[in-house]
């Protein structure tokens, strides 16, 4: 039930962010004289439609995986009044990047809200204005559980916050580690908080001088609260996360390239390194199943801070991904349009469709591969 709830909530968030992205395209297109023919939530087949007063067809579709906007004359060679193709290069740039911009703005707004209520400190150099920042340390939280070890056997779950352990208050991860060592081999009472409600578990600790006694990874996050500087913190922090995402993508591409190259080496050590590089790529990539099945199963017991933060990060990731020069994505369409402007050749409808179709097939192929990897990780 928890998994179903998490996936449903995750799907709602993803659809909302994609629909907002497409709404950005529609608004900017209309403001630049391009006719918007249809705005749809979900993907066809169509379930319901209605023509609005402004002439736009609004539709609800059966596949709840995002949304779309259909513009008149979407191919670059179209030249009738109101066609996307008839717009200037600058107008096309604004239309294509509008979705990226609105996803980035959504991230800024959400992180600004969190800056007011409590923004998790994730980056070591995360921006704040010292004179307007109060840092609050959260309870010690279980970040990972070792299978068949005491914490898991007692029914504890990742995300649980430890309040008391063996009758003693827990105010730091080190304090909890010390308490497990003092009480090794004994059964202890653990009071924890899950989803805002306290509960008690009896945990039989291991008596192991070399291995884990409790069997749980521990974390303790800090929340940073601001007042007047919250909008500044929201903008700068979004920029920091954008840069971190781009660095992560760079490392991903670098590991993939070096892994494929080293696979060709006659040296066994190089091939072993290639295997490690490629494994790191597989471990760090997640598709829709990975996002919904890994991040959101904990949604039922997660608080609003975690959900708002994750929504902001996913919105930011959508913005960054759509900037990439991959055909079928916004950045790819802009890149192809710009390239043909530079070489001074006409981008015909047939050629544009072939380029976008090729990019779409490659993109869907990658999604299938990543989805298979996600399912393998989950099961």
Secondary structure class reads alpha+beta
User: What gyration radius follows from the Cα positions, in whole Å?
Assistant: 25 Å
The sequence of SSEs as H and E is HEEHEEEHEEHEEEEHHHHHH
By DSSP, the count of extended strands is 11
Report the uncertain regions: none
Q: Could you walk me through the main structural features you see in this protein, from its secondary elements to its overall organization?
A:
This protein is α+β, with helices and mostly antiparallel strands. It has ten helices and eleven strands. It has helices at 2-31, 89-117, 150-153, 173-182, 230-262, 268-284, 288-295, 304-323, 330-342, 349-378; strands spanning 36-51, 57-71, 119-120, 133-137, 140-145, 161-165, 168-169, 187-194, 197-204, 216-219, 222-226. Strands 5, 6, 7, 8, 9 and 10 form a six-stranded antiparallel β-sheet that branches. A three-stranded antiparallel β-sheet has the order 3-11-4. α2 packs across α5 (230-262), α2 (89-117) packs antiparallel against α8 and α7 packs parallel to α10 (349-378). The mean pLDDT is 84.
